[in-house]
Write a structure and sequence with these properties.
Elements (H helix, E strand, L loop, with lengths): L12 E7 L10 H15 L3 E9 L2 E8 L2 H12 L8 H26 L12 E5 L2 H23 L1
Antiparallel strand pairs: 1-3, 1-4, 2-3
Length: 157
């Protein structure tokens, strides 16, 4: 059965994740975590609010909330340097997907340079699940925070 495509919608929460290609590590040292988090916030802050992250050695898990339609439209207008008359939810979704993909590609390039490796760092496409209820948001957020806490605990031992 083909995977159903979920568009990003303004104001909606999502769970995003991916793993290293063939199970490879994507975070070898603490500096990788810091670089990932700092760049995630810097590059996507105008589009999404990062609620939680869990960065495990060979995978990442994120809970995000897409900013309001007003914020997304203003960002698009600044990007193109003018006012937009009609913007659809498809435009917003494509903008966020492209920015996320660009961020992940940039991380992969930096990681590959640092470790003198070549090829894809992540599996083909990140997993995206729309969290439709408050209970889903709470449940997924708690799970991601537990992962991050366990990872930090493992780093300090």
């Amino acid at each position: 059965m083909p995977k159903q495509k979920t568009n990003f919608k303004p104001g909606q929460y999502y769970y995003l994740s991916n793993v290293g290609n063939t199970g490879e590590f994507i975070f070898d040292v603490a500096e990788n975590h810091v670089y990932f988090k700092e760049n995630l916030l810097k590059k996507l802050n105008e589009l999404v609010e990062v609620i939680a992250w869990g960065l495990v050695s060979n995978q990442y898990h994120l809970i995000i909330r897409v900013r309001s339609q007003y914020h997304l439209k203003k960002h698009l207008e600044r990007t193109i340097g003018g006012q937009l008359r009609r913007v659809t939810s498809h435009h917003y979704s494509r903008l966020i997907s492209n920015c996320l993909s660009g961020f992940l590609s940039g991380y992969a390039r930096a990681y590959n340079r640092m470790y003198l490796r070549k090829g894809s760092l992540f599996r083909e496409q990140f997993e995206k699940i729309e969290l439709k209820t408050r209970d889903e948001v709470v449940l997924f957020t708690k799970a991601v925070l537990v992962m991050e806490k366990q990872m930090k605990k493992g780093d300090s031992e």
